[in-house]
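agent> step 3/5: call structure_predict on target 'Pipecolic acid and sarcosine oxidase' (Rousettus aegyptiacus).
agent> reason: downstream docking stage needs a structural representation; sequence fetched in step 2, passing through unchanged.
tool.input:
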Amino acid sequence: MKENPELKTMQATLSRQGIEHQCLSSEELKQRFPNIQLTRGEVGLLDKFGGVLYADHALRALQDAIRQLGGIVRDGEKVMEIKPGLPVLVKTTSESYRAENLIITAGPWTNQLLRPLGIELPLQTLRINVCYWREKVPGSYGVSQAFPCFMGLGFSLAPHPIYGLPSREYPGLMKVCYHHGNNADPEERDCPSAFSDIQDVQILSCFVRDHLPDLQPEPAIKEHCMYTNTPDEHFILDRHPKYDNIVIGAGFSGHGFKLSPVVGKILYELSMKLTPCYDLTPFRIGRFPGIGKAHF
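tool.output (status=ok):
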């Protein structure tokens, strides 16, 4: 990537937090990672503590911990109605639940649950193509070769970042994705007829061809996920403006999972009326004009 303001911000943050990192020229990057093809003027910022979280393993560990602590995990139930009050009543397709406090973290379905509660957040739901690319030589972009995760910024062909994870999830396939997508209803995420715009896949094919020459330049597997973006791509972590026993976590904009431990802590603090351990000003609902009040 060529130097840009976002890269400089990342470098400043790493320096401020005392995290070891290196700024690498295109020649140094090529020497360290020879199967990345670079052009003159591209530079890199290496965070030696970066890594990969495997979502399925992490979620399984979380659910196991919840059960061990006496919690109950209810899966496969669709929330049909939320009635505010003391207690809050939540009706699902299977049962009704009452609680003193409720935390809503419903991803792309957030506004469907919030509209009956008198508020609609400025959320954009996007369908993302999750692409996996076959290695020409198995393992060449793998974890065993210490190939890094990466985020590519400032490419002329891509208005949004491109990111990649080393091959492991699917043996012999590397995950390289575009950090943006098409507007979509989450109920239609897997309906191919609803989405004909494949510009992002074409962008990725060009990127793989030009920068990752040891991958086949057409995706071997294409899956889908959903992003729920806010206008500034910062999270929403706040109480409902009318019902202070309802807490909202939303708008994670494609980068929330890795921060879920601290987000969970903050949502817990809000729900228990504790003073948050972090300044939540950047994450308040009220930062969006006209959204800070409930409407009925």
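agent> step 4/5: record observation. The longest strand covers residues 215-229.
agent> proceeding.
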